[in-house]
From TrEMBL:
GO biological process: acetoin biosynthetic process
Pathway recorded for this protein: Polyol metabolism; (R,R)-butane-2,3-diol biosynthesis; (R,R)-butane-2,3-diol from pyruvate: step 2/3
NCBIfam families, per database record: acetolac_decarb
Protein species of origin: Lentilactobacillus buchneri subsp. silagei CD034
Family membership: Belongs to the alpha-acetolactate decarboxylase family.
Protein name according to UniProt: Alpha-acetolactate decarboxylase
Length: 237
């Protein structure tokens, strides 16, 4: 069994840049490596957030769906939740919150996860519409996204922090997904204000990186031709 200080990652954000969007891992397989996580489906099919072993997908119509074990993904993170209380925080913008998290955790050179449950306002999320082969690049596909907003909402934020050293494997900094308490709203977080929340933290000393070696397009691709960092930050911002 995966240890509680291991972050499991299937695929890399870099492989999405040139449009390697085929599903190369099933949800059933991903859940063997964690009960908490985030990701996206084949063809960037919506945004995923896994809580307490249940995988929720926010699709481009804003629906929140529980996906089956057969759901395929090109990229996902998961881990077994073992969060420790970090702080009770309130009245913070996204930028101010993330600055405080770096200060509180003192862990900017390794991976960690943040879980925040509480009240949020001015929440802006997105989900991308599923594309089909032949896939376009990440930048092109991400343009076909839906934006969702809530003035006030209770819910859970799951975030993975990746150090600058690993930019490309993941996006350096925080990668935030959200699910409302009533399971009717969520997605990849673009902006938010934390009104009040319980912040918990889980540090990882091991990154288990799983690559889609059975996918010929991935194995044959020349990533030196791609503008990986710029395209990732443009699409994930």
């Amino acid at each position: 069994m995966t240890k509680l200080t291991t972050l499991y990652q299937h695929g890399t954000l870099a492989l999405l840049v040139p449009g390697l969007l085929a599903g190369t891992l099933t949800m059933g397989d991903l859940l063997q490596h964690g009960d908490t996580g985030i990701g996206t489906g084949e063809g960037l099919d919506g945004e995923l957030i896994i809580l307490d072993g249940t995988p929720y997908q926010v699709d481009s119509d804003g629906n929140v769906n529980v996906v089956s074990d057969a759901f395929n993904m090109p990229f996902a993170n998961s881990h077994f939740a073992n969060y420790s209380p970090l702080a009770e925080l309130e009245n913070l913008s996204q930028a101010d919150l993330e600055e405080q998290l770096i200060s509180l955790t003192q862990a900017s050179n390794t991976f960690f996860s943040i879980k925040i449950t509480g009240s949020f306002s001015a929440v802006k999320t997105r989900a991308v519409k599923k594309s089909t082969p032949p896939f376009q690049t990440l930048a092109q596909t991400a343009k076909n996204q839906s934006i969702f907003t809530r003035d006030q909402v209770e819910g859970t934020l799951i975030s993975y922090y990746s150090p600058t050293l690993f930019d490309g494997a993941a996006v350096a900094g925080f990668h935030n997904h959200f699910l409302s308490a009533d399971k009717t709203f969520g997605g990849h977080l673009l902006d938010f204000h934390l009104d009040k929340g319980h912040v918990a933290y889980q540090l990882f000393d091991t990154l288990e990186q799983h690559l889609p070696v059975d996918n010929r397009d991935y194995m044959d691709h020349d990533f030196s031709l791609d503008n990986i960092q710029d395209d990732i930050h443009e699409a994930e911002g």
